[in-house]
Amino acid sequence: MRLVTTTSVEAGAILAKSIYNEKGSVLLSEGVELKAEMIQRLETLGITYIFIKDKQTEDIEYKSTLSDPVRKKAIYTINQTFQEIQKDIQLSNSFVVEKASRRLSELIRFLMTELDGNKELLNLLSDAFVYDNYIFSHSLNVTMYSLAIGMELKLSPKELETLGLGAIFHDIGKLKVPLDVLLKPGRLSEDEFIAIKEHAEAGFQLLRKVQTISLIVAHCAYQHHERINGSGYPRGLMGKDIHYFGKIIAVADVFDAVTSNRVYRKAMLPHEGLEILYAGSGTLFEKEIVEAFRLAVAIYPVGITVEISDGRKGIVTHQNTGLGDRPVIRIVEENGEQVNPYKLDMKNELNVVITSCVTAFND
């Protein structure tokens, strides 16, 4: 299977991996022949990348980080829980959140077990799911990235559970922001931007009143937009004044935001998202957290076509644990000419680096 942009796929291509809706039900099944209207519908739904069957890559298999049962459980639990909370538009009922926290804590323990048992690098880009509510999907993704970082940093199980709960609740204050502001495709007015920034305070005020939730979880909601140089919001905190978990969630939050489709821009590829984190390393984000992220997350997903610094092109077939930017590649082209495919393990070839990704199906 090969990972390509939906916009580059032509009618007649065969889908190599099923696409799901936010309830975990199959929207399009593996093996279906894609028609033009199907492809257009996927683009409308915000599916940027899909797996397509291809002769050169028919033996390449992508293994999801989350098993289907756990993924479905996560989607269902987050949707149900957040919808219950959202019914209280003022976010004033701490009993509802207390009940939700118990359910979400159980989910986080499931996710921790799943991550701990999967030795592959975390890769969420290739899990094609259609979500009606960006907050719900973003909360799951940020939780997964945060837990992966925390595990790389050797946090204890108790610390990971608190971090995970802080991550899953980090944007709960956005449930108070009007949808027309959250989903506005154009530039926000000053008042609209202020309304969005208030979600950090709103989330904190709600969570801090819940006796069964650690105050650290409330501070994760409060501080995930703070930056170590003081340029963040809502309080402009610096360095050690920001809780370590808030710093972890900040990295996870930015990465998922830029690698997800939004109404006002297209999703970036993982390596482009990592470049943004590196650009802010030491000024916006803690260096050790960015480095832990790099070690834990697949920067070049299995099935994607890449070009390396000596001009060769190939398809990523495997990940090297702890080396997200140096995968195993099947070389298929040299100097613009097709060659008999052969393996290049970038872990052992330190004289070359990946320079770009080729995501069009016909390239």
Automatic annotation (TrEMBL):
It comes from the Bacteria. Residues 113-310 form the HD-GYP domain. Pfam families: HD_5. InterPro entries: HD/PDEase_dom, HD_GYP_dom, HDIG_dom. NCBIfam families: HDIG (TIGR00277). This is Nucleotidyltransferase with HDIG domain.
